[in-house]
Amino acid sequence: MLQKKVEAVTTAAWHTGLLAGHRRFVRVVDDFTTEMGSSIGPIEVAYESWGTLNAERSNAVLVLHALTGDSHAVGGVEPGHPTPGWWNGLIGPGLAIDTDRYYVVCPNVLGGCQGTTGPSSIAPDGEIYGSRFPRITIRDQVRVEHAFAQTLGIDRFAAIVGGSMGGMRVLEWLVTYPDAMERAVVLAVGAAASAEQIALASLQIRMIEADPNYCGGDYYRYGVVPSEGLRLARELAHLSYRSPIELDDRFGRSRQLADEAVVDDNTGAAGSFAVESYLAHHGRKLVQRFDANSYVRLSEAMNYHDIGRGRGGVRRALAGVKAQVTVIGISSDRLFPLAQQQAIVDGLPSCRGLHVVESDIGHDGFLVEVKAIGDVLRPEL
């Protein structure tokens, strides 16, 4: 049962210090039952917005972030935001997602750790959820996003846009709420998680859970962090986000200077190759800003992703889509290869074909190639 509650923005104790900048919080539901039958709530959503919502509330664009993203799609480093906006250069006045025309809103996802209710949130009993935060699905996240839109008074979006895990949610929006948007943009994702994607995510989950500091997901009460497991999970993930061509061009077999080498805490051995240092750097960065339990729950949700589940398959699910959909793939993406985006295009009732962004970067091209993506989006939006 999902009960919508429209009320003023509320801020729980664990949000202290996060209200700087544009981030705001709104309670969207009091009670929520997940697809797997667990009850959680109340649920608060953290979000940021840019531009002005018109009187008709018809110019809203919903932007959905990927696995370790958050509501900070645009902006610089500021209190509460240790990293710059993840889509700077794509959203703003006169840009492809034009905030002079559109009211752009980006919520943090259910299960996240940047303001929206997740494993590190305070449960109704006053204790952190931790291991008690249930498994969730992409459909659960979209139901919360729909309640969030209703809380803002938005019944129909001018467009919904997202890549990777955000693209999974765009697809679920298209199938679950076919009248809730005029247009949609799906980037660098498939209609269902593949065996390889499930395997990669499952290995990352096991790395985190194998860390002695994980404590079954209740590490908060002991004042420890499963940093080694989360770091290794991120390193494996980051490897899948980049292409072999890019890694060879940037690093090849170049050696790491001794005074910059990454030292393994267990063996004391220094990483001898520059690419090792590169991966370790990204692993350490994530540990500083992300919660391990959120990483586990969101990775599980991505593994469950299948828009055809219980709907007669992917093609039947896509056949009911009413919005105008733009599908974009990255040429060198080995995590979500172009064939997966082509399958989405083939299943849509009306789609003008797959837009391929040529890039050597790999999956992360959907974040990095903002000019090329903007060139595709501008005429579509």
From TrEMBL:
<keyword id="KW-0963">Cytoplasm</keyword>
<comment type="subunit">
    <text>Homodimer.</text>
</comment>
<dbReference type="GO" id="GO:0004414">
    <property type="term" value="F:homoserine O-acetyltransferase activity"/>
</dbReference>
<feature type="active site">
    <location>
        <position position="363"/>
    </location>
</feature>
<comment type="similarity">
    <text>Belongs to the AB hydrolase superfamily. MetX family.</text>
</comment>
<keyword id="KW-0486">Methionine biosynthesis</keyword>
<dbReference type="InterPro" id="IPR000073">
    <property type="entry name" value="AB_hydrolase_1"/>
</dbReference>
<keyword id="KW-0028">Amino-acid biosynthesis</keyword>
<keyword id="KW-0012">Acyltransferase</keyword>
<dbReference type="InterPro" id="IPR029058">
    <property type="entry name" value="AB_hydrolase_fold"/>
</dbReference>
<protein>
    <recommendedName>
        <fullName>Homoserine O-acetyltransferase</fullName>
        <ecNumber>2.3.1.31</ecNumber>
    </recommendedName>
</protein>
<feature type="binding site">
    <location>
        <position position="364"/>
    </location>
    <ligand>
        <name>substrate</name>
    </ligand>
</feature>
<feature type="active site">
    <location>
        <position position="333"/>
    </location>
</feature>
<dbReference type="InterPro" id="IPR008220">
    <property type="entry name" value="HAT_MetX-like"/>
</dbReference>
<feature type="domain" description="AB hydrolase-1">
    <location>
        <begin position="59"/>
        <end position="369"/>
    </location>
</feature>
<feature type="active site" description="Nucleophile">
    <location>
        <position position="164"/>
    </location>
</feature>
<comment type="function">
    <text>Transfers an acetyl group from acetyl-CoA to L-homoserine, forming acetyl-L-homoserine.</text>
</comment>
<keyword id="KW-0808">Transferase</keyword>
<feature type="binding site">
    <location>
        <position position="234"/>
    </location>
    <ligand>
        <name>substrate</name>
    </ligand>
</feature>
<comment type="pathway">
    <text>Amino-acid biosynthesis; L-methionine biosynthesis via de novo pathway; O-acetyl-L-homoserine from L-homoserine: step 1/1.</text>
</comment>
<dbReference type="Pfam" id="PF00561">
    <property type="entry name" value="Abhydrolase_1"/>
</dbReference>
